[in-house]
Design a protein that fits this description.
heterodimer, A: 14 helices, 76% helix, B: alpha+beta, Immunoglobulin-like, 4 domains, 5-stranded antiparallel sheet, 3-stranded antiparallel sheet, 52% helix
Chain lengths: 338, 488
């Protein structure tokens, strides 16, 4: 019985995921296509050299002469058959190639910063909960909240200033590159993964990823703290203490596992936030990721790229939520059996 | 409000074909622009006519497309080529004047083709500006163009000036009328104006409020939040009166002044005292945050109440829509909306933030409603024949209200951040000064490089502290009002 309802639940969730993704595609299609401006104008230089028929042919090629519902039909059909189209700009390269090229950098940035956020946030949260009401708790909570209130772009600008100039003539102050993804002047613009390039890329990654991490530590540590406070006041913790377990053992074996579910849900929600924050960071640090591409494609009215970015972002959030739901079901026997 | 259409005409002045293809886009160093007498025909509707509230701060006008006599061939230009452009002209003004201008060289990167040069002007003040522009390149080929624009500024109406006070007065009036109506009802029913019951009710309400306040002030987070907010609300109310300079008065002789005794933080790109702007910004930033948070919470609560209470397939549909709104990357959505709308004012930015921020609140309210509606007292109310509306009003809503309230305070913090981010990314409300628009002007003038560090640091710090204040207060209220957390 239980097994069957479990399967039905997953099936229902899957259908929801599909519907949500479909909705995202339709909404974003209309939003983007109703933007003022004519993409064809941007594709060819404004000059009498180019015949009007060229415009017409281009418009035909990209189905821009059809009515909106027809275009939506093409768009949905092409998306689900795996034909994601070519960019209007950039020598008509395939959208998928362009986005995947940028995605590497965004994923690297978001990945590194998420790992840092989790490590720092969970450690702070756990220790605050453990010493609830103490000096560390008060200090850590207010410090993380202080950073939480910073506009990401502002923090990025300030960090950039801090680590690219020698303040007050302090020679020992570390200097970091102000923007870019690796030292292209020294190693050439063509990316080959060699050791020195890797080291250089890591160096260029420090500031952007730290900016992202600092802002979101508060979210993780606060939830970690309250989840742990919740479980630490439960009776079985008292029992565990009474058995003579050390504080660390109690935390590790009893409190942490039970404090996990809210954390997992939160991490999934954070995907959306981190992607949003990454946009601002990429713009300020000239990091060649998705955010950078988005701004450019809006200026160029490059619909295929823009649509793909929005859909990928939406799908990432939906899938992250779905996966976190599945993990929660898997680790929480009450949901699985009920 | 009807001042969306802010005259964005682009004048394209085309450079005629030059015999040789070698020029760099060194661009465009114009002496000062030009003017030629604009013919003023009073009462005639002229292109580029505009109106705006008296607070209008800057207005960018690019003069708009004018037929080009000689289309010419596009020139092929390769990197390293040099083009010299010279321009001449002058600007007479009938009140309005050009405060700055930019050259935009239309150069197609992939084709390496130069096909035109545009100029755009920022006009300040009211009146007419006419521009005759002549461009000469290094081969002595010239092209010219002219256009004119009319700038009218409508003084702020009584409503625009005093809407905040009116809203407050209206809210107070509604409260008083409600109390009076209750009394009159009792009198009509033959009871005294003030009965024992109503006395007791108000006593209990006051006591509960007092208790919450006491708990709040005993909570160190709440206390810190209250102190920070009292400070900034004071600034928001009295800031414009203590500001040493009038921020609407430009001093174009004195732009980018470094910090001094007269200007503590320096002056901005319009020569306005930055410290005064900070004080003005407090009001607008906090208003943007609060109003959009209230809109978002109201919508979220309505959607959540509906979907949670109705249940069934309607709930499913609403929740799917909610998921969609939640999943679309928020910032991309905003940037697209920005491209869509073009230029927005204060109301516009409030609506954008408010109308896109409701989905988390809706989710939270729905969850709470789901748990409340199964409680026994709801069942009892239904059994004695209470209508759906009155069950929602008397039982369900009061039980979700504390959550919504605490959440609204948290949303204010998020909205202030959103406004700053949107301003920074170019979606800045025109005609008003907020901390966000200050940051955006500061970073586009590269304030750090010209020594105006505080121009970037101060607005940012103000945002950080206000957000911190609202966040602390929000969390503290949540802890006090949320029954799930209160138990501990």
């Amino acid at each position: 019985m239980a097994r069957r309802s479990f399967r039905r639940m997953i099936l229902k969730r899957l259908i929801n995921v599909f519907l949500t993704i479909l909705g995202i595609m339709i909404l974003n299609f209309f939003l983007i296509h109703l933007m003022p401006g004519d993409p064809i104008e941007n594709m060819i230089p404004r000059s009498p050299k180019f015949d009007v028929s060229l415009k017409w042919n281009l418009a035909e090629k990209f189905h821009l002469n059809d009515s909106l519902p027809e275009q939506l039909g093409y768009y949905l059909y092409n998306t689900f058959t795996g034909n994601w189209g070519t960019s209007y700009m950039a020598n008509k390269r395939a959208v998928f190639d362009i986005i995947m090229g940028d995605m590497r950098w965004t994923m690297l940035l978001v990945g590194v910063s998420t790992v840092f956020t989790l490590l720092i946030g969970m450690a702070i949260g756990a220790y605050s909960a453990y010493r609830r009401g103490g000096a560390f708790d008060v200090g850590a909570t207010s410090t993380t909240l202080f950073f939480y209130g910073m506009p990401v772009f502002w923090l990025a600008i300030v960090l950039q200033l801090l680590f690219t100039t020698q303040l007050l003539g302090m020679n020992w102050w570390p200097q970091l590159p102000a923007g870019g993804y690796y030292d292209t002047q020294r190693y050439g613009a063509e990316l080959k993964w060699t050791w020195p390039i890797f080291v250089s890329a890591c160096k260029y990654l420090i500031l952007p990823s730290m900016t992202l991490a600092i802002g979101s530590v508060a979210g993780i540590s606060l939830v970690m703290r309250s989840a742990l406070v919740d479980t630490m006041t439960d009776d079985y913790i008292l029992t565990a203490r009474a058995k003579g377990l050390t504080d660390y053992q109690v935390l590790r074996r009893h409190a942490l596992p039970n404090g996990m579910p809210p954390m997992i849900a939160l991490i999934a929600m954070d995907v959306a936030f981190v992607i949003g924050g990454a946009y601002q960071v990429e713009v300020i640090f000239n990091y060649p990721g998705i955010g950078y591409r988005t701004i450019k494609s809006i200026q160029d009215l490059d619909f295929p790229i823009l649509q793909f970015i929005v859909v990928v972002g939406g799908v990432a959030v939906v899938l992250a939520n779905f996966i976190s739901d599945m993990i929660l079901i898997y680790i929480d026997p009450r949901i699985r059996m009920g | 409000m009807g001042w969306f259409n802010m005259h964005r005409l682009v004048v394209r002045t085309r450079i005629p074909a030059a015999p040789r293809s070698s020029f760099v886009l060194v661009g465009a160093i114009l002496g000062f622009l030009l003017l030629s007498g604009a013919v003023l025909i009073p009462g005639l509707e002229l292109p580029g006519q505009t109106s705006g509230p008296a607070e209008l701060r800057s207005l960018t006008i690019a003069l708009g497309p004018v037929p080009v006599a000689d289309a010419g061939d596009p020139q092929n230009v390769t990197e390293g080529d040099m083009i010299f452009l010279g321009g001449s002209g002058s600007v007479p003004s009938d009140g309005a004047s050009i405060i700055n201008y930019t050259w935009i060289i239309d150069y197609h990167e992939t084709n390496q083709t130069l096909y035109g040069v545009n100029t755009s002007f920022s006009v300040r003040g009211t009146g007419y500006v006419g521009v005759n522009l002549t461009v000469t390149d290094s081969n002595n080929l010239t092209d010219w163009d002219n256009s004119y624009v009319v700038v009218k500024i409508r003084p702020a109406t009584f409503l625009e000036k005093n809407w905040l006070i009116l809203v407050l007065v209206a809210a107070a009036a509604v409260l008083i009328v409600r109390i009076l109506l209750g009394g009159i009802k009792r009198v009509l029913a033959g009871l005294p104006f003030v009965t024992e019951t109503s006395k007791e009710k108000s006593r209990l309400a006051t006591r509960r409020f007092g208790k919450t306040m006491k708990q709040l002030l005993r909570n160190y987070m709440g206390l810190a939040g209250v102190i920070i907010l009292v400070f900034f609300v004071f600034l928001a109310i009295f800031g414009p009166y203590i500001a040493p300079y009038d921020v609407h008065k430009l001093d174009l002789e004195n732009t980018f002044a470094l910090p001094s005794k007269e200007h503590w933080i320096g002056t901005d790109n319009f020569g306005v005292d930055i410290f005064s702007e900070l004080l003005y910004g407090a009001r607008t930033s906090i208003i943007v945050g609060m109003v959009s948070a209230i809109i978002a919470s109201f919508l979220g609560a309505a959607v959540g109440l509906y979907s949670g209470y109705v249940g069934g397939w309607k709930d499913e549909v609403v929740m799917r829509l909610n998921d969609i709104v939640l999943s679309i990357p928020w910032l991309v959505l905003m940037i697209v909306v920005a491209a869509f709308i073009g230029e927005i004012d204060l109301t516009g930015i409030i609506l954008i933030i408010g109308l896109t921020g409701w989905s988390t609140t809706a989710r939270m309210v729905r969850a709470q409603v789901l748990s409340v509606k199964e409680r026994q007292y709801v069942e009892r109310a239904r059994a004695i024949g209470a209508s759906e509306m009155s069950i929602i009003r008397r039982h369900i809503f009061p039980n979700t209200f504390p959550l919504v309230f605490a959440n609204t305070i948290l949303t204010v913090a998020v909205s202030i951040l959103s406004e700053a981010t949107l301003s920074f990314l170019g979606l800045r409300p025109i005609g008003v000064i907020t901390w966000g628009t200050m940051l955006s002007f500061a970073s586009s003038s590269s304030a750090f490089q010209i020594g105006l560090h505080w121009w970037i640091l101060m607005p940012g710090l103000c945002i950080v502290f206000v957000v911190l204040g609202f966040t602390l207060l929000g969390y503290a209220l949540d802890e006090i009002l949320n029954p799930k957390l209160r138990k501990r």
